[in-house]
Write a structure and sequence with these properties.
The protein has 336 residues and is an alpha/beta fold. It has a single domain, classed as TIM Barrel, CATH 3.20.20. An eight-stranded parallel beta barrel has the order 1-2-3-4-5-6-7-9, surrounded by eight helices. Helix 1 links the parallel strand 1 and strand 2. Helix 3 packs parallel to helix 5. The longest helix has 20 residues. To bacterial alkanal monooxygenase alpha and beta chains. It holds the Pfam family Bac_luciferase. InterPro entries: Bact_Lucif_Oxidored, CmoO-like, Luciferase-like_dom, Luciferase-like_sf. This is Luciferase-like monooxygenase.
Length: 336
Amino acid sequence: MKKFEISVLDLAPVRQNKTIHDTFNDSLELARFAEKLDYKRFWLAEHHNMASIASSATSVLIGFIANGTEKIRVGSGGIMLPNHSSLVIAEQFGTLESLFPNRIDLGVGRAPGTDGLTAKALGRNPMNINQHFPQQIHELQKYFSVENSESLVRAIPGEGCDIPIYILGSSTDSAWLAAELGLPYAFAGHFAPELMAAAFEIYRENYKPSNHFPKPYIIACVNGIAAETDQEANKLATTLYQAFINIIRNDRKPYSPPVDDMDEVWNPMEKAHVLNMLRYRFVGSKESVKKEIDQFQKLFRVDELMITSHIYENEARLKSYEIFRNAVDELNDSLL
């Protein structure tokens, strides 16, 4: 096992009986807390038409978080690139990088981040996404380059900005692409764990070094819920389970508070489906999650672990991230 970084993925969760304004303030509080704990980065994810997630205007929210923090890297995990013009994203992230130098990451994915009808409203063309997505990444790299100053179409701000691009994915297709382009790779293990092992193997074995990234770099995003005791963490985790049940039932309502007995909420088939989607999750006390992370790292050997926490009360969410920081520090210290 090797030493690894730890980061945050925030979905800007909207809770029952809370406003979106509350959500954004909670996200900022979390980002400041993560910065204090020396987390590597704080990413926000683009989703649409979901009453439980408020990060649809991802670039705007990144600016809000970056403006309220001082040193932590802030970025997208990710921008769903086929929803947008490459030029517009280059300008938006060029603006962010100009405002907050050396702190902005651009993670990009090809999924819609929503349902089919909303994807259509976003102007996506499903017939050319697989072909157009790699092309858009090349367009971003061109717009960010100093050499593009001679072009008739320029990204200003954006041109000459050193903004690292990360490929996001939940399948092996994204692994092949990230390896071919010589870019860092972030896998969505928090909701699509089935192909994670295969994707990492493909990425490592086929990686082509690039100027900015001479070696492969892997981020694994995993659900994590920690508390003082296993019992408390397991109860907090029922908010996560209910969120996944809502996805299965196509019920987009805000996140629910924890419950005492999930068997009163889900049926056996739903339970099996949810737990399969969440097969890689860290839930428990510090000692419990430390053992789970240790086992995960021995299996996957990632460079960075990105934790996303579906916890109803923000105070408990902050405590969870503190426990994860301590658990990871202890694991890394043991490798010295």
